[in-house]
Amino acid sequence: NNNSFEVTDKSISLIVSRGCPYNCQFCATKNFWTAKYICKSTDGVIEEIRDVMRRGAEYIKFRDSTFVVNKKWVYELCEKILEQGMRFHWAVNARVNLVDYDMFRLMKKAGLDTVCFGVESGSQRILDFYGKGVTLEQTEKAFEICKRLGLRTGAYFMLGALPETREEMEMTYQFAKKLKATYSWVFLFMPLPGAELYQYYIDQGHTFDYSRIRSDKAVFSSAGLTVDELEAMRSRWYEDLNPRPNRVKQGINVIL
After folding, report:
1. pLDDT at 73 over 90
2. CB burial of residue 128 (10 Å; 0-12, 13-18, 19+)
3. Which residue from 187, 115, 184, 185 is spatially nearest to 145, judged by alpha carbons?
């Protein structure tokens, strides 16, 4: 069984594509990689994988913004991994609207064991504010497919966007509980220069200290909550959504 061996801490990260064709308003990726999606040849990726495996890597996290944009490329890569008998486990980032059962089944056969999604919010209004271009129903379906295939899931959430209400924060928390991701990360919202939402916040009169950029630190109050209250909420969510064994595993598997 290609997926029978344990994941170890002999992990490495690879990036094999550039650009993102999507329009998330909080992301500055397309402003330095452009919106044009390009990826390395599958033969080139196979050689990179062989190289890191020769150096002792047993687990690869593909840190591409969205690994599964080009389905034909994904199929070709997986088929080559299988044809050449390569044995390693790997993780990817993906969008919920690009989850295809047959493709993900092949990816698992080729060693995929973890898929991470930018869920962001349990409020459709906030998802639309972010420009995610996905629905809550698509998110639920993507997680269901991964669970059917026995794939571990990672979910990224954001807390504290300016228009967000306390009720919408609670919706996100309840949605996270419903999804039951293997790993959940909770970030406090930070508008980044180069992203569309950055100018929105500047227009609202906000200024930012970018020396404080950390996922667990708030840079402004939101929904009537102080910075300290937002940080305490983030901490409670993280601990509640990730039982302690999972928190240990996150470090081992280098999912972040």
Report:
1. yes
2. middle
3. 115
Read off the pTM: 0.90
Q: Is 110 left (phi over 0), alpha (psi -120 to 50) or beta?
A: alpha
Region 161-184 average pLDDT: 96
Mean pLDDT throughout 89-106? 97
pLDDT of residue 81: 98
Cα 162-184-20 angle, rounded to 5 deg: 65
Please provide the distance, in angstroms rounded to a whole number, between the alpha carbons at the two ends of the chain. 27
Sequence letter at residue 69: V
pLDDT confidence bin for 4, thresholds 50/70/90: very low
Rounded CA separation 213/191 (Å): 10
**Whole-angstrom Cα distance, residue 254 to residue 256?**
6
β-pair type (38-39, 17-18):
antiparallel
Q: How many residues does the chain have?
A: 256
DSSP 140-168: HHHHHHHHHTT-EEEEEEEE--TT--HHH
Q: Which helix (H) or strand (E) holds 33?
A: helix 29-33
